[in-house]
Design a protein that fits this description.
Strand order of the largest sheet: 1-2
Number of helices: 13
Keywords: Membrane, Transmembrane, Transmembrane helix
Organism: Spirosoma sordidisoli
Helix content: 55-70%
Oligomer: single chain
Pfam families: HGSNAT_cat
Shape: globular
Protein name: DUF1624 domain-containing protein
């Protein structure tokens, strides 16, 4: 395992001791706050276009949130595991235990409140985070940065060939359509339609095959984290990170011409686009916050960042609990508690339904900020 006294690894400077990067916490917090915002509109029928996912090919700002988080997972691994000797007993057990915990938390969200094993969705956001964390942790412990770069290249090219060259059984040709591509076929065979994302019916946006390029997204984070922990001066780190981010973004846009950017399929062009933009975002945060010591307005996002998994899990669970509580409105309609609060306090204040929906989402984020800020001030950090 890498330590501050480790030899040079494939041309990189030795890894330095791993102080906590405030910029990484802030970038993680900004990503999680955005995730909560887009996942909790006041009214799903009224959403501003940038806060919705692209229907299939293409992308919106919302489509960048999840890959940003997986990128951050990769960066964080280098700071968390970089303090540990790879030969120390129990490291792998801790990694597996944490991955299993994340996966089970995701399954619990899918089970709740019906707990019907016959129709429960098996994949999910936390499940994918768990698998990416497990794979990237092993890569960090067992491979060098050069090897990780070759693995990333192999994943992106191999996934492209799988989806565009390999004929889909029962269809007879390779394609990128929602229900007939190779990834969808594997989901139907392995998971069966009973255990996939219900709106999609016969495939899952966090399905089996598309987890492979998602690991590629985490691997980009691994490479960036090791670069940030190298012994080079801060200005050089930022300059090269900006350059790499621009090149990756451009490569993703070029590849989009023959392998379309698509979040549901997690296409290779999407990996490069999102990874490049994530590099640019983290480089900017690192330069402003850790190098220039700019702190104004940063701590609210840090509060989200240090308890990221906790707030994501609870922000998914609490609305489901609220949906089980039913109340009668003055007009006689029976609604759940979440709908009751939204229609009683948010909707009357806005003439435009789409603005009311956004206000509802922002209110939910602000409530969580109050809770997380109190936890941050009390130094309460719940680690999964």
């Amino acid at each position: 395992m890498q330590t501050a006294s480790a030899p040079v690894r494939d041309g990189l400077e030795p890894l330095q001791a791993a102080p906590r990067l405030l910029s990484l916490d802030a970038f993680r917090g900004l990503t999680v706050a955005a995730m909560i915002l887009v996942n909790n509109p006041g009214d799903w029928a009224h959403i501003y276009a940038p806060l919705e996912h692209a229907p299939w090919h293409g992308w919106t700002p919302t489509d960048l949130i999840f890959p940003f988080f997986l990128f951050i997972v990769g960066v964080s691994i280098t700071f968390a595991l970089g303090r540990t000797d790879a030969r120390q007993g129990g490291v792998m057990q801790k990694i597996v235990k944490r991955s299993a915990t994340l996966f089970l938390l995701g399954l619990f969200l899918n089970f709740f409140p019906k707990f019907d094993i016959s129709t429960v969705r098996i994949p999910g956001v936390l499940q994918r985070i768990a698998l990416v964390y497990l794979a990237c942790s092993m890569l960090f412990l067992k491979t060098t940065p050069r090897q990780q770069l070759w693995i990333l290249f192999s994943i992106l090219v191999g996934y492209w060939l799988l989806l565009t060259v390999v004929p889909v059984p029962g269809i007879g040709y390779a394609n990128l359509e929602p229900e007939t591509n190779l990834a969808a076929w594997i989901d139907r065979i392995v998971l069966t339609p009973a255990h996939v994302y219900k709106p999609a019916r016969v495939w899952d946006p966090e399905g089996i095959l598309s987890t492979l390029p998602a690991i590629g997204t985490g691997t980009i984070g691994l490479l960036v984290g090791q670069w940030l922990r190298s012994g080079r001066v801060a200005t050089e780190k930022v300059a090269w990170l900006f350059a790499a981010g621009c090149l990756a973004t451009l490569a993703g846009l070029v590849w989009n011409g023959f392998f379309p950017i698509n979040k549901a399929l997690w296409t290779s062009s999407y990996v490069l686009l999102a990874g490049g933009l994530a590099m640019l975002g983290l480089a900017l945060c690192y330069w402003l916050i850790d190098v220039k010591q700019y702190r104004r307005g940063v701590l609210p996002f840090v509060a989200f960042g240090v308890n990221a998994i906790t707030v994501f899990f609870l922000s998914g669970l609490i609305p489901r609990i609220m949906s089980l509580i039913h109340l009668s409105r003055p007009d006689g309609t029976d609604v759940n508690l979440r709908e009751y609060l939204y229609r009683s306090f948010i909707v009357p204040a806005f003439a435009d339904p789409i603005n009311a929906s956004l206000a509802g989402a922002l209110t939910f984020v602000l409530i969580w900020f109050g809770i997380l800020w109190w936890m941050y001030r009390k130094q309460i950090i719940i680690k999964v």
